[in-house]
Automatic annotation (TrEMBL):
GO cellular component terms given for this protein: membrane
Protein name, per record: Cytochrome P450
Protein family according to the UniProt entry: Belongs to the cytochrome P450 family.
Pathway(s) this gene product operates in, as recorded in its UniProt entry: Secondary metabolite biosynthesis
GO molecular function: heme binding; iron ion binding; monooxygenase activity; oxidoreductase activity, acting on paired donors, with incorporation or reduction of molecular oxygen
Binding site for heme: C473
Keyword tags: Heme, Iron, Membrane, Metal-binding, Monooxygenase, Oxidoreductase, Transmembrane, Transmembrane helix
Subcellular locations according to the entry: Membrane
UniProt-listed InterPro entries: Cyt_P450, Cyt_P450_CS, Cyt_P450_E_grp-I, Cyt_P450_sf, Cytochrome_P450_fung
Keyword Heme included in the entry's annotation: yes
TM helices/strands, residue ranges: 6-26
Lineage: superkingdom: Eukaryota
Amino acid sequence: MSDLPNNLHLALWVSTALIFVVLLISRISSRQNGSKHLPYPPGPQGLPILGNILQMPQKDQWHTFAEWARKYGNIIHLTLLDRHVIVLTSYEDADRLLNARGATYSSRPRLTLFRQHAGWDKLLGILPYGDSFHTQRRMLNGFFNPSASRKYHPLLEQHSRLLALQLSENSSKLHSLTRLHVSAVILRITYGHKAESEDDEWIHSSEAAMKSFDALGVPGSHPIDIFPALGRLPYWIWGTRFIQALEGLRKGALDLSIKPFATVKDQSKSGNAEPSIAARLIEENASNSGTCYDERDMSGACGSIYAAGVDANDLLIHSFILAMAVYPEVQRKAQAELDHYLRNERLLNVEDRNSLPYLTAVAKEVMRYRPIAPLGEFDVRETWSVCGAYYDFARLGFPHATEVDDEYEKMLIPAGSMIITDMWTMCHDPHDFPDPFLFNPDRFLYYEGGAPSLRKDVREPEDIVFGFGRRICIGRHIAMAQLWIIMATFLATFEIGLPHDEAGKEIRPTKEHFDQIERHPKPFPFQFVPRSKSVIHALRDAVSSAE
């Protein structure tokens, strides 16, 4: 593009801009003329054509949504260019719409760029509601339902013990080691691959694939997503950065799903495949000719497991450690429950959860206090360009989308609307969680004779954080089991504390550490002091016997 004469360069940009504006005005007019005679939900007044783009904050959008909810109500209507956006800030509304009306609210917004140009058309997380979506959910449900999930518990226990043992030797590698073991569990379950070091090629490829997902900005917001016909134009009109990002995204789709699945397929043919979801799917769907039925759906389903699982539990573990360091009284109470239960006789198993209600309440409070994805499945601030001019957007993640017009409480929710679940506001609703900004596991407990039991009359954070309706996280049972066993193993092994400066004063995390909810949290030097030599010996023996 740089070789073109300047006047031709300018003419191309002007022509593209004019086409974009004309199509946008036409799209808006047609939607307005075709809508039902019902009001949209209330929301802040926007500008012509642009809508509410300039009112969207650059970060921490959920705080602004909470303010708008107090002014306009729990259901907020916005427009971003020609797109309707419905923000749900209360669990009750999300339940009545996304759970109860799943057939209407289970699709995804149009993601033309990702699906038709970048090769991500078969990843479960971005599939529209339809045949492939149902096929992949059906494939995975047999591996991740409550009963099937229990067979992975020994693997979760093995990695939680190895992680704790490695941290006892070098706690400065907290973040890299945590990510290694969370990734290793998912790769072992999905592909049978045994990742044993931070330099593992499979982990690096998967991480690069996830990073490539961020490179093109907000999914669904590029001009090609808004006007698919623009995808027929040469890519260079969007600039060198776009071309590089698109190439990286295509490689990411290959590395995340197609390439590892093909590796397992080759292993299966030679009889060398380790037990895994991919190997089982290949075996169950093999044809007489040696090919596999629904192969693209199988590889897409397997790739989605890593995409959905690693970041979530990595962030939850980081939030747990932060909470234990800052709230030592909660840590001591959880350790007292553990010590009374174990009596220094053995290491913990996942099946011990039902006997340790306070620790289970701590896990619930970690999820509620700092939900892993406040506005849905992803939340990263990105930038995208329209005809050479850059606009900042807050990533709204992968919202649901309506299939048809819907009426709710005498308001119109138009077909094709992006439906955003504001998990942060839901998890900090004072009606459901009094004193919501206080970290308090006791909110989930009642005490009888001094012994705690889990309450059944409190909103479950899992019902919010793992999503809604037919898009609910399919791996949530394993995710909760992994979070719990790592938490329990850490508390049984370490005193988790804050570092001290040269004067002996505690160095407390900054507000930035508390507010951060992103893929790679800012490192903080927590202290991990082993509680006893015997527990380290027990961990070492358990790890050695598992090898």
